[in-house]
Amino acid sequence: MYPNSLVKLIENFRKLPGVGEKTAERYALAAADMSEESIHEFSEALIGIKKNLKHCRICGNLSDEDECRICRDTSRNHKQIFVVQSSKDIAAMEKTHEYRGVYHVLNGLVSASRGIMPDDLNIDTLLDRAAEAEEIILATSATMDGETTAMYLDKLLKTHYPQLLVTRIAHGLPAGGLLDYADEMTLAHALSDRRRMG
Amino acid sequence: MYPNSLVKLIENFRKLPGVGEKTAERYALAAADMSEESIHEFSEALIGIKKNLKHCRICGNLSDEDECRICRDTSRNHKQIFVVQSSKDIAAMEKTHEYRGVYHVLNGLVSASRGIMPDDLNIDTLLDRAAEAEEIILATSATMDGETTAMYLDKLLKTHYPQLLVTRIAHGLPAGGLLDYADEMTLAHALSDRRRMG
Fold first, then answer.
1. Rounded Cα gap, residues A127 and B130, in angstroms
2. What confidence tens digit (pLDDT) does each residue in B25-52 have?
3. CA torsion angle A126 A127 A132 A136 (round to 10)
4. Does domain B71-192 have CATH number 3.60.130.10?
5. CA-based nearest residue in chain A for residue B16
6. B32 to A62: CB separation less than 8 angstroms, yes or no
7. Do B9 and A43 touch (CB under 8 A)?
8. Where in chain A is the domain with CATH 1.10.8.420?
């Protein structure tokens, strides 16, 4: 019923996570009401992430530079590595202002059900980095796949570096809870209550 | 904390109705994971609405052509005009498959509180179209501004065309609506618009 140009935009908004038909319609109609300038800026911003956004070659975090802001920050403790499944977990953690080490982004979790194997994840570089590290904090979500991944990493790391301190963030997170949905207090507690693995 | 290119995209998503910081972040990160092709298509779709989308010169509905699909449809009754505040009301109404007349989009409502006057709306062309019409159905929302606008239009139309049939869509309990969940306005309407049974 909508004109083609609007239908096309609705289809594109529908590709965003959690956006259904009604919401996509609402977004597209709002976009139709925006100024030409705003639409161009929006369009440029979309193109911009493909042009500028890459993964930090040290930790895998999203970055506009070859190395992300955190990895370039010499005031941080580079011997403490907080391992997460995605960049948005870093954003959530940084908001607590409780952590002064660095990060490592796996870009996913080992998942038997979805056929994601350790080889599909950013693990090799973690193993390299671990050679210089004093502590690796495993901060994957408190889900089945998150636990599997943590156990896998713990074993792998200890095989290579028997002396390495490997910890797991505390389960202040509710069972099944996703890291980036947790409030700052919960995350701060989860950090301070971390325990030695194995 | 996010790289600039991502922050920029988050800001643009935040301009959409009902999108807060967390949701905008989720959308931007999902966009970062899309293929270059998808992103270009998305960006083109945004530009496309500014390039192609206009208001039908007859009814004011959003359209890629000078006249919208409904106004060009000769199988519809062009003497019955259903007056709504925005194009999305047309989309909603068409899904019922119950209406075979045409539409008129006001592009807003008369609103004292927000300083929107009748002159700001698409009313002049409605007045022209009413000369040929048999019935004008006022279908603005059951809100204060919707009622004000309906009353204003009824008066205006009757002043110009004393013989014209001007109707108002019924207000009452929504389908499946429970009496004790309805607000007072809805209940008052449901009472005053009651009809004889059988």
1. 76
2. 999 999 998 999 999 999 999 999 989 9
3. 60
4. no
5. A27
6. yes
7. no
8. 4-52
pLDDT digits (tens, 9 = 90+) for A184-195: 767 776 676 676
Domain with CATH 3.40.1360.10 in chain A: 71-192
Output the six-digit token pair for A30: 């709002």
- Shortest distance between the Cα of A150 and any Cα of chain B, in A, equals 23
Instruction: Measure in Å the smallest separation between the Cα of A126 and chain B Cα atoms.
Output: 21
The second-level CATH assignment, the architecture, of B4-52 is Orthogonal Bundle (1.10)
ipTM over 0.90: no
Contact B45 A9 (CB under 8 A): yes
Count of A–B CB contacts within 8 Å?
154
User: Looking at beta carbons, which residues of chain A come within 8 Å of B88?
Assistant: 25-26, 29
3-state secondary structure at position A55:
strand
First-to-last C-alpha distance (Å) of chain B: 66
